[in-house]
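Could you join me in thinking about how sequence relates to backbone shape in a protein? We need material for that, and I hope you will provide a protein of your own picking. Label the sequence line and the structure token line clearly, so we can match residues to local backbone shapes. Would you write everything just below, so we can both look at the same thing?
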Amino acid sequence: ADSPRMADLTALAARHGLHVVEDSAVALGAEVDGRPAGRHGVAGVYSFFPAKPAGGIGDGGMIVTDDDGLATTARMLRNHGQPAGKRFYHELLGFNCRMDELTAGFLLRKLPHLDELLRRRRAIAEIYEEGLRPLAPALLPPAAGFAGRAVYTYVVRAQEREALRAHLAGEGIETAVYYPRPLHLQPAFAHLGHREGDFPVAERLSREALALPLHPDMAPGAAERVVTAVQRFYAAGR
């Protein structure tokens, strides 16, 4: 996952008396400036949703912090606001966010293999990079260089995206769109009064973004087959 310039952000926050909480949902195992993603601010959060690089078998996540008070509050909030050892005593208005034992057990077995799983993801991304970069500008791969990154998805910007999706589907290759509608055009934000055209860059990206298959258990040669199929599409004069 790409990360911002954390040193600049933490310095800015310090000047204004603010705390930095890192949304590192897809970045467990990545590094930023030589430190683990999620470990630059007062707290970091990771996701164990099944689709994420460190995914489990159900919903769940993790908060990391060196702040004992924040850790205590987080533990209370995840368990209906109850302090440790004080069942049915609700010091805070909390939630039912306890991870079930099956998911926790699965993750305890999986996480020791995270480095290898991320290595496989990076290897697939490098195959895509090598084969698809020459297709620019008709198809634009993400920024090159995958060392230290937790590659979650491999999203390209594709001219004639829907035609490319149909072509790949015909080859038995599944793709996804992240995301088809920008936030300012979502019904939930209609009260803000934005219209189509207000944010043209976001709208263009939503029309062009296409995620290619990427997961650590892809069969040998599968990534190369995706590259060949995309190359064939654009070689046909697209």
